[in-house]
Design a protein that fits this description.
Elements: H1 2-18, H2 21-27, H3 36-47, H4 56-75, H5 83-97, H6 102-119, H7 124-138, H8 146-150, E1 166-167, E2 177-181, E3 187-192, E4 199-200, H9 228-234, H10 248-261, E5 275-279, H11 284-296, H12 300-303, E6 304-308, H13 315-331, H14 344-351
Parallel strand pairs: 1-4, 5-6
Antiparallel strand pairs: 2-3
Helix pairs in contact: 3-14, 4-7, 5-6
């Protein structure tokens, strides 16, 4: 029970700060898109408004997961205007989290009304520009997510594999038919063509009001919602995994690697084969032990050799590079560009919350 109360308190603190009037008024002002650095700082400060504390590594991973999840949702958005449905699904879920706290719930409802007021009047072209701006912001983020990899919707290089099938956007005809009309507007012929996908009629349009059925599942908890594109692709690779035929090319590569490392006998290898030991992460203690072994090794030294591979970054080299980079940074003049301070007002305002 105490754990539930603590989790509820953390959620109320974070939502209360995120949906505060001063923060939302600043966020909804027309402005340039924030950088990843500013966005990560905002996320960190929002999380730390409660008793919850995350390590920098955990916070970086949380930010990457959040970015990749939203990037995938924007990719699957049937039409630019449906970005609002994604945001409304987010808000509906948050509203459910704080339903037992009237003060915070009222903040969420007030923010929802402001978003409807600001964005409902945008044209299709403006929504397309907004979507394109988001995709540009996401384009260099290709972090692999285990859930996406498991459901075969993300490739090993971090890029998404989008389906070419499914329902078409609302108000759009199913492709595959070319109709020809005469000068009086009468249809004179029809020609069908292969589309390369399996498309279906559009489902009903989701509600853009304060409350209602959003229809779209984009924006809901991706760990509980079974998307059609995920369930379709996750069933296909099961047949391939049952094939136990050995990969001869992989076997030969392993044998070649073994020969290079000296663990397999070649045709011209003498009987007294040299023993190798590989050391990837050398510490000071291990270096002292190796020096002592060389000093007292005797006959063993000729048949025992250690291969040191520097798998960790050399701290001394990193320090020297940092000093050199600092000298260049000191010599550069700071550009007088107001856009470089983009997001500073928002971060400064968060300090006062």
């Amino acid at each position: 029970m105490a754990h539930f109360i603590s989790a509820t308190g953390v959620m109320n603190d974070i939502v209360g700060t995120m949906f505060s009037k001063t923060f939302m008024d600043e966020l909804l002002k027309p402005q340039q898109l924030y950088s990843h650095r500013t966005m990560k700082t905002v996320l960190t400060r929002l999380a730390h408004t409660s008793i919850m504390r995350l390590s920098p590594a955990s916070m970086d991973r949380l930010y990457e997961l959040m970015i990749m999840a939203f990037k995938y949702q924007v990719f699957l958005c049937p039409r630019p205007k449906d970005l609002l449905l994604i945001s409304y699904n987010h808000i509906d879920t948050i509203r459910e989290f704080v339903k037992d706290t009237p003060v915070v719930l009222n903040q969420v409802d007030e923010t929802h009304r402001k978003i409807i007021e600001v964005y409902s009047s945008l044209s299709e072209g403006e929504f397309q520009l907004l979507r394109q701006t988001l995709l540009i912001f996401f384009q260099d983020m290709n972090v692999r997510v285990s859930l996406f990899l498991k459901n075969q919707v993300q490739k090993p290089n971090g890029r998404f594999a989008l389906s070419t099938s499914g329902p078409v956007p609302h108000g759009i005809d199913v492709p595959g038919l070319i109709r020809t009309f005469d000068c009086k507007g009468r249809e004179v012929s029809r020609v069908e063509f292969p589309t390369g996908g399996c498309y279906s009629s559009p489902i009903r349009e989701g509600s853009f009001l304060l409350n209602g059925d959003r229809v779209s599942t984009l924006g809901l908890n991706m760990y509980t919602v079974n998307h059609l594109e995920e369930t379709h692709t996750s069933k296909t690779p099961t047949v391939k995994q049952t094939d136990d035929t050995p990969n001869l090319l992989a076997k030969e590569e392993l044998n070649l690697l073994a020969r290079l490392m000296g663990s397999m006998k070649a045709e011209d290898t003498p009987k007294a084969e040299t023993v190798f030991r590989i050391n990837l992460f050398t510490t000071k203690e291990e270096e002292e032990e190796e020096e002592q072994a060389r000093a007292s090794g005797g006959a063993e030294e000729s048949s025992f050799e250690v291969i040191n591979i520097q798998a960790m970054q050399d701290e001394q080299a990193a320090t020297e590079l940092a000093l050199i980079a600092g000298q260049f940074a000191e010599g550069e003049e700071k550009p007088e560009n107001p856009e470089s301070n983009k997001g500073d007002d928002l971060l400064a305002m968060m300090d006062d919350l």
